[in-house]
Amino acid sequence: MRDASSFDEFYRSTSRRMLRYGYAVAGDYVEAQDLVQEAYARAWRQWGRMSAHPAPEAWLRLVVARLATDRWRRLRGWQAALVRSGPPEAVPPPGEDAVLLTGALRRLPAAQRQALALHYLFDMSVDEIARETGVPTGTVKSWLSRGRARLAALLPGVSAAELEANDVA
Amino acid sequence: MSRDVSDFYRSLAADADGRPLAGPDALRRWADRRARVRAAGGSLVAVLLIAGAATGTRLVLADDRGPVTPPAATPTVTASPPSPSPATPAPTTTAPATPDRTPSAPATGTRAPRTPTSIPDRAFFAQPAGLVAAPPYFTEGEPVLPEFCGADLDEPVVQRRTRALFYHLGTDRPETAVPYGSYRHTITIHRAGRAGDWMADLRRAVRECPEQEAASGGVSRQRLLPGGAYGDESLLIELRTPALTAGGTAEGETVRLIRVVRIGDVVTVLWEIGWEGTSSDRANVDDYSRRAARAVSDWLD
Question: Could you say which of A53, B190, B245, B268 has the lowest number of CB atoms within 10 Å?
């Protein structure tokens, strides 16, 4: 039996973080919104078991990352539902730095975007990222190092030398 | 001063926080409704696949790579596989400029584009390399079109986004050269089924307003021009206004072109607004119109 109130509480407490994460791995806010909603819909469908999961948020992040790298997905169901419920609320224009970052992220491989998002948005260590993504720590270090070097080249005012000095342990 | 990557991620997080996400109850209702439809619609998917094959339509199954299992560190619960994604018919082609079609006579074998609810950045086309005079930027509150004798073309819309574009005509321009011209590029999602009516209203407004007082003084003349077939239907509007010298005397005319393209419920307006009195270049307007229509088609496909 699925408990709606516990799902709603989980959604309210995690959806903001998940949307940030989706934005960082997809590089597009609208796509992020779609795939985050899709991931939560999947979680709700199996909430009877998921509600007892010790790390449902980690599970959701994996779904979001997978959907974000799935170029051929068409998430039209949610959009159709929004059509029926009326136009979306007006949203503020994106911040300049966010635009610069998403533009740069779109030029990075998906694995690097995922690793960088887990580090910068969730403050996760190399070991934690390796556990979540299921790859060796050396691979994560490589993703982070290459991703940060590429961002340093693409973002204004970011020094590659300082990035190396502050590299992730 | 050197900046850190984390500054940019903080900005991205703040950006995401400032935008709305539907509530959990709405999401649960949608997920449950979709599950019911899928449970009842398995045979319908098979019928659609067969019908699509029979008509030569290429169908692409969404590349759903199956379930995501819980993280390795927390193996106590195994998530069941999500339902397969529904078959999604893909367009047979993505033509740069589709033949002109009217709403009443859609091309046989093509599907109507969906009505989207929001406009992503990728719906806006990329300018040709080397012809960007300044980075484009999004604006708010600017008129989408000039006035046509006070005709009321306003109506509730789902969403609208506008950006400003600055361009050179040739790639041989020095980096510091001023632009040849600029565009106000607006994409509007109209309510389902209303965009065609809006186009008809616009066509009528231009025809019924051959002349009006120009904002800069003198008389502005406007008309519909033939030529160009973009999207499901398109218009090309010409505006001629007196070209004024610094002293305020008229010296020739300034010609502006506006291309309006409808694809499904989405209308794109490319209003060439010049740069310090330049006139629109027809070849450039046609090129940008093709690019704009293609970007919207790709977004909607």
Answer: B245
